[in-house]
Amino acid sequence: xxxxESGSAPGNSPATRESPWPVGLMSEKxxxxxxxxxxxxxxxxxxxxxxxxxxxxxxxxDLGQDATVSFTVWRSVAQRLSSEFAQGDRVxxxxxxxxxxxxxxxxxxxxxxxxxxxxxxxxxxxxLRRQLQSEGLFDPARxxxxxxxxxxxxxxxxxxxxxxxxxxxxATLRWPGxxxxxxxxxxxxxxxxxxxxxxxxxxxxxxxxxxxxxxRGGGDFQNLLPFSDERVVRAAxxxxxxxxxxxxxxxxxxxxxxxxxxxASTPTDAAKRVVPDVGEELAGIDQARARMxxxxxQLLSYETDxxxxxxxxxxxxxxxxxxxxxxEELVRWIARGTELADRAIVDRxxxxxxxxxxxxxxxxxxxxxxxxxxxxxxxxxxxRDAGDAPAGTPIRISLAAGKLAAVSEGSAGPAxx
Length: 417
What we know:
- The chain is built from 12 helices and 13 strands.
- By secondary structure, it is an alpha/beta fold.
- It is rod-shaped.
- Residues about 1-10 have low confidence and may be disordered.
């Protein structure tokens, strides 16, 4: 390259408005700077995996933020890989960044590729498990009871998946009138956690949904990682609607199983545990009706026997006997009362006669009958002393029959001794 008059190469001069760099020069500098980075180990999620002519072209996404880079695995390296890879896998890769000057794009060339170690994933999940448990999200007291018969079931699952078919078919067979509101979501890959959490939140906001089932038809450990994602777990914990986890994986329980109100072993098991069987319920009603009929029959039989025993007692068998016995007793008491009353009347008559005789003997009238009289002054006072009636004093004399008016002539001498 020709040198400038100052003796320095154009690429070494700073770019200015008056002396800008050519695009090619800038691209070459970017390529040189990227090339100095050398090989690095990176971790991410495979979001695209395409094989063409033995070479692999794909994309690797960051696990925590929105950052993606394209990668290439040449045939010589792809043939040495010890395991199969697919979209959704979490991997660790030895890569070397390359900037393609002609196209202006950045790619990385993969020299080694392996799945994220199980031990490392388990350690991360265990840390998250301990954190959520310390917050009380796994507390059994938080778990809500499922409704006996949900009117509408919310279902978060993959579109046209076996899990969806299993839940809908088995629930409908058990109770034909059950209704569903289905929220389709990716159940593996980089979009799964976000879409599943959004599905739970959307169904929880619907007041007609009585219970939410999150269903997936099993899978390997890495495919089930979205159901241990903190976003999914916290969405289920925050829901006011009961949540059922039906991931269908017995060996490794996702964290969603721990926070859900009910864990079902499979989507089919979820349908059976959420919706009652109409046949079983009708049989239960028949059994209850039979028990009630038997119990009522026993109660009626017992009461019938008790009434028969009561009616067999003499007092109820011939109740008129009580009246007859009381009637005879009443007659005796009436006779006795009459006798006592007559005797009392006789006694009172005799006593009255005696009292009358005594009264008569003591009465002033009897004295008057013997010829005596009662002398009274004009104002009614009985005259006892002749001195009280001097001559000319008007007096009245009461006799046994009648009264006389007279005038005193004065004292006629002393009273006889």
